[in-house]
Amino acid sequence: MIKLNKFNQLGFTMLELMISLFVGAFILAGVMFTYLGMKITTADTMDIGELQESGRLAMDVLKRDIELAGFWGNFTETPSAAVLTNASPTSPSPDCSEGTNNGTFPDTGAGSNSAFKVIYAKEAASGNELNCIGSPLAGSDILQIKRVLGQEVTGTTVTSNTYFTATPQTARFIRGTGAVINPGINAKVWEYTHNAYFVQDQTYTLNGKSVVVPTLRRMRLSNGQMRSETVMEGIENIRFVFGLDTNGDLRVDTYKTTAQMSAIDWDQQSAVVSSVQIFLLVRTLEEDRNNPATNQTFILGGEGDHKRVLTFNDGFRRKLLTSTVRLVNVGNDQWAI
Predict the structure, then answer these.
(1) What burial letters (b/e) apply to 213-230, b meaning 16+ CB within 10 Å?
(2) How many CA atoms lie within 13 A of 86 on its CB side?
(3) Taking the model in full, what pTM does it have?
(4) What is the mean pLDDT of residues 257-274?
(5) Distance in angstroms (rounded) separating the CA atoms of residues 179 and 336
(6) How many whole angstroms separate alpha carbon 103 and alpha carbon 111?
(7) Domain span at 50
(8) InterPro entries, alphabetically (predicted)?
């Protein structure tokens, strides 16, 4: 047995303690730097993933609706007062409309001589737009689409939504009553949809605080009224550029921005809208403290004086997505089922 006394009690010297503390602090600093780096990288990855996912989902919704604009099922023309076999249901109040023959249903009065507009766009200013959209984001486009859904509902019980019944030559719009619709001989039934897409600021509670987020929204025909709903948060601006076929060869001959499109272009008599370029600017919901404010410039289509150039100087991350959609229900290439 070893007897301990003040002469054989061993320990660390002050120098050894200082060296060990220094080495421990050095290792701890390395661990902290690694942790912080991984945290920043993870946050960056999540922000980028958020931008890509939000943009992809919003783009898919827009593309699907645009490419089927003017789809009327088994009806081989565009609905007009001349082919409708009875009066349309009462229009929504307020209706999303602007100009002649551009409401939910074809005009039967003075505007019935112009074509029923199945696709229409305008650049938002301020105040009320299309008589149904309050305070959209100024400088962003509004897009209006009319068509029937791809699945016919002949022989099934329907809701109180609006429906389109047609033969290849005649058609009518009716409101569902909760029962099976009898369309008549050689006729089919399709659910009718009228959508208007726009960007609008919305207030949300995020991480315990109130934040204002630009949001892609739409007015949608439901139960006889145009009702607002959110499509995707974080969509800061949208723009559409329209490809026109001016000679009937099913090829785009010229591109026009919303501001360049005329009433004749929307009527699609002398030229047909055969494709649409979509420009979608996506933004994170919150500023990134690890992303210092820098000048960001994005060009959302157009040429010369018709370019839409947006410049920002803040800590939000942004991504610009573009896509071109071919309309499959225009000109001589129209679908009919």
Answers:
(1) bbbbbbbbbbebebeeee
(2) 10
(3) 0.85
(4) 90
(5) 26
(6) 11
(7) 39-326
(8) N_methyl_site, PilW
